[in-house]
Design goal:
Elements lengths: L12 E4 L2 E4 L2 H23 L2 E5 L3 H10 L13 E5 L1 E3 L9 H8 L21 H15 L12 E4 L24 E2 L2 E2 L4 E6 L1 H6 L2 E6 L5 H9 L7 H4 L7 E7 L23 E2 L2 E2 L4
Parallel strand pairs: 2-11, 3-4, 3-6, 6-10, 10-11
Antiparallel strand pairs: 1-2, 5-9, 7-9, 8-9, 12-13
Helix pairs in contact: 1-2
Amino acid sequence: MADTGGVRRGVPQEILPGVHVYASPGEVARGAARLFIDYAWQAIAKDGRFSVALSGGNTPRAMFANLASDEFRGQVDWAKVHVFWGDERAVPPDNAESNYGMARRELLIRVPIPESNVHRMQAEKPNIGRAAHEYEEVLRKNLDLDDRGFPRFHLIFLGLGVEGHTASLFPGGRVDRQTSRWVSTPMVTKLNMRRMTLTLPVLDAAMRVAFLVVGDEKADILHKVLQEKCDPPLPAQLVQPRDRGLRLFLVDKAAAAKLVPPAPDKTPSPAKSTGTTRGRPGRPA
């Protein structure tokens, strides 16, 4: 990035539209927690509830710790928060790799959210395809639909893999904007494992999507996603919320190191005339 010296502690710098750069991974996590709180209040004031899909990873883990802290916990009306997941591994909830399990340990048992408001993906079931259909029914019962018939979250948190995947939508896999499915169970070839994930149309239906990206190992892929044209497009590039939805990136300085801010507009402003000619203000002679 051309100049990161202006990134101050706790104060992000928007270097590209929707791309907010923080001084450190810890500040990204705090910024994400504040985003959660702000959008929760907005959604509850408007709709009486806040529907959010969580992701796995170290940055969300730190965000959860912030939300569960004495500083932030009391700022959320947890009785009106409904928690879902963007994707899940095919492991039991007590497995260390479970996205739900991590969120439960770091957040859900530490805040007064009703158990009935927690909607996990049961990807560990022997028939994961049937479990995906069951999760679609969970979404149908708990979320409003957009004008295309897809469930609309108030906020979805996403990560960004070094190869450009997000949720469990991987390059080389089938990432279909035309699908009518809400939840799919792709085989992740390099891991030889199926996962459960929200589909691209559901991600695009969200009011807000927030990518959390930290670390110098993400600098190349973040630049590629935001400032390169890939053929075929990377899954993370395909996430484009519609109907005035917002796509946000909360990143640290290390991840943003290769982003190139737009050049300043050097077009001279038209000179303002203060004189009058033949009784018509501002018209040059």
